[in-house]
Amino acid sequence: QMESDTKGLATLVAGVASVAMLAFLTSRIGRIRSRGPKKANVFTIALTGGPCGGKSSCLKVVKAALEKQGYGVYLVPETPTILIGGGAEYPGINGGQSLIEFERGLIDLQLQMENSFLGIAASVPKKSVVICDRGLLDVKAYMPRALWEEVLDAMGLREPDLVARYDLVLHMVTAAKGAEKFYTTANNAARKETPEEARALDDAVVAAWAQHPRVAVAGNGGAAGFQGKLDRCVAAVLGALKEG
Question: Quick check: keyword Transmembrane helix in the entry (predicted)?
Fold first, then answer.
């Protein structure tokens, strides 16, 4: 009986050790992935904002301005749009386990895409800018804080490492704040928010990026209208590049 108990205890200890090792390896792999490739010659931007903020237009004008300055420009596509366009459905902020799986899949895919673009950009001598259509911290705005922390823990990720991936965060304020007559969901099949929901999401995205040291916010209004908003985006990017 004693020999049987000893073997059982040894098996239990080995199992616990295996679980602990798996958790350790998951954490290490997650941290390595979240840091991304070494990128001495690459400047990384998270282009974010509320619904109908003008991100698509901003991407075009910023890309053109950077190429005029001699930079190589890489555009990482918006991951939620890829998933939703492929048939996945955002379960909603109260989606429970379905929401966890959706956001885990989103983070996993976005990490891989960003790291691929960063690795390619870093492999060439030309100075480059990688613009991510939404950054990883955007996910935080679309789920309860407890579930966000659960997902990070399960994937072995740390929020400070995700923040540090980006040299600049450029936030495009939703048209539902200050340019209400231009707010629409017609130009994006993945966008379903009412103006009220868009304003709340805009605030949530701002809060999600609050700990980043360099956030530029492009608001609405001004005599130059939407073109003025785009001009401010270009100025923010070129200014950040000049600062280094």
Answer: yes
Q: What is the DSSP letter of 76?
A: E
Spatial separation of the C-alpha atoms in residues 34 and 136, rounded to whole Å: 10
Q: Does residue 146 share a domain with residue 70?
A: yes
Give every CB contact of residue 50 below 8 A, 6+ residues apart in sequence.
Answer: 172, 173, 174, 176, 177, 198, 199, 201, 202, 205
Say yes or no: 17 and 46 in one domain: no
pLDDT at 23: 45
Sequence-distant contacts of 66-71: CB under 8 A, at least 24 apart: 66/129, 66/237, 69/238, 70/126, 70/127, 71/126, 71/127, 71/128, 71/129, 71/241
The verdict on 90 and 26 lying in the same domain is no
Mark the ranges of the chain whose per-residue pLDDT is less than 50. Answer: 21-29, 31
CA distances from 20 to 17, 40, 109 (A): 5, 35, 26
User: What residues contact residue 170 under an 8 Å CB cut-off, 6+ apart?
Assistant: 45, 46, 47, 48, 49, 58, 215, 216, 218, 233, 236, 237
Q: How high is the pLDDT of residue 185?
A: 84
Q: How many domains are contained in the chain?
A: 2
Which pLDDT value is given to residue 24?
Answer: 45
Range(s) of the domain holding residue 23: 1-33
